[in-house]
Amino acid sequence: MDVDIKKTDNVKINFINADQLLNSTDIIKTKKNLDKLKQELGSLFEYELSQNIRQNLNDSVYQAVFNFYNTAYISDLEKEKSKLYPDLEDRKDKIISAFNYLAYHFGDSIIPERIIYLNKLFSQVSCSQTEIAVGLENYISPKSEVIQSIPNSQLYQWQRDRMDIQYLERDILLNWIQVQLFNEMDGKFAEHLIQAGKILYILNAAFPKASERYVLRYKKEQMEWANQNEAIVWNYLIKQEVLFKNDLRMRTNFLNEGPKTVGLADDAPDRIGQFLGYRIVKGFMDKNKALSLSELLKVRYNTILQTYEIK
């Protein structure tokens, strides 16, 4: 899926570190920067910040914002996050490169106007139609003192295991692709499998030189398990007769992030349904190499499913 992106190598995205601007012990500076951000940024910024301080952004809200960033816990988080800042410039180049690939396939209208780094209290990435908000606290080292101080009942071990800055650009693109190219649906389990596969296949196109393990966000041993047990998982789904049922429990167990895929062996990685959907879509596209990604979006799930062959 590696293509020549020279013709679309002109993506312009504004990166704004709102945390860096708002995290201050000088309330006058906080007010000045908050006023500027409110003027420049869209509704996503206001919504995310209002969630943090638990009130709407009115003229006197700067006091609540100042208090939020100067609480001991948030202050410690922000101090630890600042260690990531030197790495963000290199990450920025990788993010822009990925959006260049996306623009090659879907046009410039797919590009966000800005990416905002803003404390989201461990909710990871959210998107509007024009902006992306990213909580960098999700990428702090899990070995850091501030993360170690959080009780396991508030931040589970599997969530800590996912805290890795190398996946920043991957997570940003994944969430953006989901919002921009796909609608939420309440359909058959197989429909959700194929949609998850399409999302990951397009994500792979945005990172054509990346490994499948990176795209799937799997560790080496997780990828090995998925590869070795693909046929077993498929046969399990057939035996359970769930593919053509609208089954919320199965979707949650097989597609959502978590410590594992519920219903399978204890060492089964989470999101095994996403892995399976990706394999099915990739197999379909390998057989239909002339098909564009835009055309892939329109292909019905059962058409893709019929081509699946377990290797």
From TrEMBL:
**Which InterPro entries is this protein grouped with?**
GldB-like
Pfam families xref list: GldB_lipo (PF25594)
Name of the featured protein: Gliding motility lipoprotein GldB
What organism is the protein native to? Brumimicrobium salinarum
